[in-house]
Design brief:
Elements: E1 28-35, H1 40-57, E2 61-65, H2 67-72, H3 74-81, E3 86-90, E4 101-105, E5 109-113, H4 118-136, E6 142-150, H5 157-165, E7 170-176, E8 191-193, E9 198-203, H6 211-218, H7 223-240, E10 243-249, H8 250-253, H9 261-272, E11 276-278, H10 280-287
Parallel strand pairs: 1-2, 1-10, 1-11, 2-3, 6-7, 7-9
Antiparallel strand pairs: 4-5, 8-9
Helix pairs in contact: 4-5, 7-9
Amino acid sequence: MGTVAPTASDIDARRSPAAPGAGGDRGIFLIGYDTESGDPAVTRPFLQRMREIHEATEVPATLFLCGRTAERNLEALRPLADHSLMDLQQHTYSHVLLKSVYIEDPQEGVRFVRAGTLEQIREEVRRTTVLLRETLGVECTGITGPYAYYRGLVDRPDILEILWDEGIRFVRSWGRNERDWQPVDLAIQPFFYAVQGFPQMLEVPIHGWQDISLRKTVGWTDHAAFLAGVYPYMERAAAERLVFSYCTHDHSSRRDDPTMAITEALLRKARDLGMQCLSYADYYAQRV
């Protein structure tokens, strides 16, 4: 599936998938929505439909919110702030990358996207944490790194230190393979950044394909092909008692799929497989 599994020298020796809290009897399903659109006409209907399908399936969800997106949609977010199925975390304020990426995309060619400075990263994280606390009463402890990166933050203790200082305790940053592309193999399971000096900072990788990349690859309207690209990861996670961590977005979830039928199918698949469905915050609490 196209990525190099970490070695003991790369990362903290992670728990066995069979260890308590790692994968459960039938695996664990985590879904996180990178909520980053600048257009409330995109985000608000997404929030409404997302809530409906999660309530119907009783599957928890995590919203990784860009601060500027949260500011533009506060009234739509307020009912989710204390919703039993909803977990609100962050995605920086304005989608500033934590690490630069050199993307070798077979369809669009090579692209380079530069990271923010350390000062920018600290300000982006702090600003969003304060915003969520003061407007929604949410204490943010998790972040998705914009774009996601190969090997997460294993080589960036300086960034981990900033995140820890700003109250972040779990990150979703390993979401690309050695070409800074996708997919990411399920062998990359959640691990703590103990080797880097942060034994309670948990990395929860993104597995398989991020939704936008796969839908562009198979075609936005070919829902069956998209599901055929995701289901094998879920089935393997259930069979091998692994964590499957899935990334989707507010602006892509309803594109050519206004009822979010794809997302609902994934939620129901997780239930049918008997997977334990958790928010990212609850998964972190289970591991610590």
